[in-house]
Design brief:
10 strands; four-stranded antiparallel sheet; elongated; mainly beta
């Protein structure tokens, strides 16, 4: 069988979602709906206002199967950047990614951030080259 180069090209898609402590219902927040055949290639959370829980304040980011697939216990107790960890998993179905907030000690009264999530879609082509 002959191999043929794929001349299809696409730009990465980037979802940008602002969130705050008040947005979390029961500790979770659906933030991005990924299309089927999507692969998360990068991203981060920028904490713009620290989540001021008494001891710890953390976020997980995952899908319907694994709650911490792309972020496992990332601290949001201070302003700054928290990197996501792309896994190479292919999201085979349309579905939401969910942020899960957890804290210990005194309950937080404030906290804000921005999720920036980059992904591509297998089989998608926006233009050709070569």
């Amino acid at each position: 069988m002959a191999f043929f180069k794929n001349d299809g090209r696409q730009s990465p898609a980037v979802a940008v979602v602002k969130f705050s402590l008040a947005d979390f219902v029961n500790g979770t927040l659906d933030v991005v709906e990924l299309p089927g055949n999507a692969i998360v290639t990068g991203g981060f959370i920028t904490v713009t206002t620290a989540f001021n829980a008494g001891t710890t304040a953390t976020l997980d980011l995952g899908d319907g199967t694994t709650a911490d697939l792309y972020l496992d216990g990332g601290s949001v107790a201070a302003k700054g950047l928290v990197a996501l960890v792309p896994t190479g998993d292919i999201n085979t179905r349309v579905g939401d990614l969910t942020l899960t907030y957890a804290e210990t000690g005194t309950a937080a009264t404030e906290g804000e951030g921005v999720l920036v999530l980059e992904y591509i879609e297998l089989g998608k082509s926006e233009w050709t080259q070569g």
